[in-house]
Amino acid sequence: MAVGIFDSGLGGLTVLKAVQKRLPDTNLLYFADSANAPYGVRTADDIYGLTRTAVEDLWSQGCDLVILACNTASAAALRRMQEAGVPEGKRVLGVFVPLIEALTERQWGDNSPPREVAVKHVALFATPATVASRAFQRELAFRAIGVDVEAQACGGVVDAIEDGDMILAEALARSHVDALRRKMPNPQAAILGCTHYPLLEDVFQKALGADVKVYSQPKLVADSLADYLERHPDMAGTSAAGFLTTGDPRRVSDGATRFLRRRIAFDAA
Question: Whole-model pTM above 0.85?
Fold first, then answer.
């Protein structure tokens, strides 16, 4: 039995790693749409179509529950998929839901009116597509009032990480923080709105300063999944665990091995 984890590339491996630590007995089937990555520069319609195809593939393989471990896919596709209808007995959950819950200190299903929250000035670092979707701002507005979100599109960071060029990735992260600070000099909190960015969490934190609370998603997602599976143990599915990619399995395996610093072997999707 396995829970599906989907990402356009390797960023979702940060979520997989956190879930494995939190739920060591839960099997996971990871799907990387590497042939079409990165999603962050694609149109919303492209992202929706690619995400839906991948999720349906995971459902067909027996993953009753699929986590969109990709903020770009969550922002552009999750709501449309849910509105279009999800097959009976299947679920798809977005990676930024636990983050919104943490920021607003309320459960996703809490439909009470928006209310004041402690954090008023939030910096969002994300891909261009996630920033363009304004999904974080929309979901925050449903639950909180008076929160100012300043978004910074972090072009180039995902590509640098996927290519294994961490020196470039770190330099780009620092430059994006500088750009954000010119628009919002004193953020109280920062959202790392891409699952690649936790690999640079220390870089973002140092550039932002110790007084800024940095929200990184993997642990939040792992804790949320643990809570969900405790309430819905039947959603573990019937699929076998493993790693699938639409790209070149050897190349993606090498990248994933660098990413997690342990041997990962992908098969062709």
Answer: yes
